[in-house]
Amino acid sequence: MSTSKFDEIVAFAGVEEFLDTPVKRYSSGMNARLGFAIAAHLEPEILIIDEVLAVGDAAFQHKAFGRIKQMARAGAPVVLVSHQLDRIAELCTKAILLDRGTVRMAGKPLDAINLYLHGVGIDRTAHAGDAGIHFTQVVPIDNQTVLSGETLTVLVTGTAAITEPRPNWTPALRVRDVAARNDVYCVTGFQRGVALPTDGEFEYELALQMNVQPGRYEIQAFVWDAEENREIVHSDLVPVQVLERLPFYNQVQLNSQWRIQKSATPTPMSGGSRGTMGKS
Questions:
Q1: Would 264 be classed as within a structural domain?
Q2: Is the whole model's pTM more than 0.70, yes or no?
Q3: CA–CA distance from 189 to each of 14, 59, 265, 279 (Å)?
Q4: Residue 51: which of 189, 193, 196, 168 has the closest Cα?
């Protein structure tokens, strides 16, 4: 191994201060970080990762995930074993859901995630007392009805009384399609740099572009435990109605902008108007 490669591994694992310490004295987290750093920098033909993204602080998790994405985009086969659903949705092209050693399903990652959330492994009986966190309300600030593609601003308020740091806990939010009975969007504070409230009253505001088909949706705030892979506490479900703005096909509203570069005759655009720009 070259000196430069060795230095890259040490820096990535964050163990520069412990080079003179025997590896047998490393903590389990340090061992996991070092093992991942070695595997990720030796250009393996296949990279198999088992829960490494749950090790270390948020900064290391972000760095490790970035390295995995880089390797996958370069064409290296990656097998990821994890309960971090957001990472699976972003990275994976195929997923297998296991339940006590049995394959529950194999297919698209979002399908596996929805089955997991609604049928496997999550304790839905959580109470506020378990967390020291209570959600007071989740309120759409302007209106509970928006046009498809427009922004819905949501205010989440509550109180927190956490006596010890919870590095694996994070605030989170989901948007659920009522008719389809599945989540169309989930996001955590880990992904947006928002820390879990720990003391006193709190409020945070989220702006959501509702780029979805017209229909009925529900919004819910919750606290996610990334180590135990469960919801600690959640708010009530808040209904939201999305109305049609401009028609489109399939699942998402991308607000396409049309520009005519050259045309022999003027072309009627959406709504009967004429011009060089249109939206759908």
A1: no
A2: no
A3: 23, 13, 52, 33
A4: 168
